[in-house]
Amino acid sequence: MFDLIRAAIPVFLLSLLIEWAAYRYLSHDHDAPHEHSGYGTRDTITSLSMGVGNVLINLLWKGVVVAIYTALYSLTPLRLPEQAWWVWVLLFLADDYAYYWYHRVSHEVRLFWASHVVHHSSQHYNLSTALRQTWVPMTALPFWLVLPLLGFAPWMVLLAQAWNLLYQFFVHTERVGRLPAPVEYIFNTPSHHRAHHGSNDVYLDRNYGGILIIWDRLHRTFQPETEPVRYGLVHNIHTHRPVQVAFHEFAALWRDVRTARNWRDRLHYLTRPPGWHPER
């Protein structure tokens, strides 16, 4: 099956090289808004390593996803015509809304955050950061199961997921400022996503949209970029080891669950937001 993301890898790498060259040859020291502007060698290598690992794991996991989508599609009598333009519009909206909730839950439920935290672990913000992806992609599955049940063909759902990720690659940059107001109002832009990656209090748990930012406006999770962004985690991990980056939060979660006083606290560690601890 054609994989849009794997096919786009040369585009990703070329874009990354162009952005690096822009920082290297077109920027001046006084242009840097913070100490982590641009690229750091070890940070970039880590991001690329996480991306390679994600691609390799998805070579196997994608087969499982296809099998599940196909099984669900076979269970429903609903069939949406693949040639109808309005079906593709519906798919675009349905996929992006599914992504909003996947992304939001991945920030607000610690078990899901343990997978997603990888993407926020860099203190840099550039196109290589977009490639810093989880090695545990299984957490995304539940949020798209309804689409094949609604009659969207499995290959269409997979394509929609791919174009969403492809779009998001290009919002991971500091080289693009604010765009015209109508664009900023409707779409997820580099400015909106910079805010999302901020560990500043004002930016925490905001701007979950993939392509569209209207979901955040609708659900009151929108926050414009109003102050310099401090990238990374509230408590940074200070490591460039890919395995540690991939699994550090799962290890911390396991320690908390294992030492919890009762089963209620164990459940809350899994399902409450990151940082939750029982009252002493």
Query: What is the 3D shape?
Result: globular
Helix content: 55-70%
Beta-strand percent range: under 5%
Q: If helices are DSSP runs of H or I spanning 4 or more residues, what is the number of helices?
A: 13
How confident overall, as mean pLDDT? 95
How big is the Rg? 19 Å
Major sheet details:
none
What count of structural domains?
1
Q: What structural class results from the helix and strand content?
A: mainly alpha
How many strands appear in the DSSP assignment?
A: 0
Low-pLDDT stretches:
none
**SSE series:** HHHHHHHHHHHHH
Distance between the termini: 53 Å
Subcellular location: Endomembrane system
Domain Fatty acid hydroxylase: 88-221
GO biological process, one term: lipid biosynthetic process
Keywords: Lipid metabolism, Membrane, Oxidoreductase, Transmembrane, Transmembrane helix
Key structural traits:
Sterol_desaturase/TMEM195, transmembrane, transmembrane helix, Fatty_acid_hydroxylase, 56% helix, mainly alpha, 280 residues, iron ion binding
Describe the structure.
- This protein is mostly helical.
- It has one domain (4-271).
- It has 13 helices and no strands.
- The longest helix has 35 residues, at 41-75.
